């Protein structure tokens, strides 16, 4: 059985890498087999974490680009 999760875009140089690691592993324990994530901006640490999970075949990271003047519009 496969369970996929689609996650809202990362914004404002998202930097909660420790929380994200815990969230990934909890969801994997619950049976999630793949994560689809969107990136507008994230920190270097989160980028490394996502790259690790991508290399394991667990994450697809997609660009998130909207024609916005300011992030406040989000």
From TrEMBL:
GO terms for molecular function: glycosyltransferase activity. It is an enzyme of class 2 (transferase). InterPro entries: Glyco_transf_92 (IPR008166). Its main location: membrane. Keywords: Glycosyltransferase, Membrane, Transferase, Transmembrane, Transmembrane helix. It is found in: Membrane. Its EC number is 2.4.1.-. It is a single-pass membrane protein. It comes from the Eukaryota. Pfam families: Glyco_transf_92. GO terms for cellular component: cytoplasm; membrane. PANTHER family: GLYCOSYLTRANSFERASE FAMILY 92 PROTEIN. Belongs to the glycosyltransferase 92 family. This is Glycosyltransferase family 92 protein.
């Amino acid at each position: 059985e496969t369970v996929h999760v689609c996650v809202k875009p990362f914004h404002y140089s998202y930097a909660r890498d420790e929380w994200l690691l815990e969230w990934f592993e909890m969801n994997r324990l619950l049976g999630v087999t793949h994560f689809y994530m969107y990136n507008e901006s994230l920190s270097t640490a989160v980028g490394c974490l996502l790259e690790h999970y991508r290399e394991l075949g667990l994450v697809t990271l997609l660009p998130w680009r909207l024609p916005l003047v300011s992030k406040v519009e989000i």
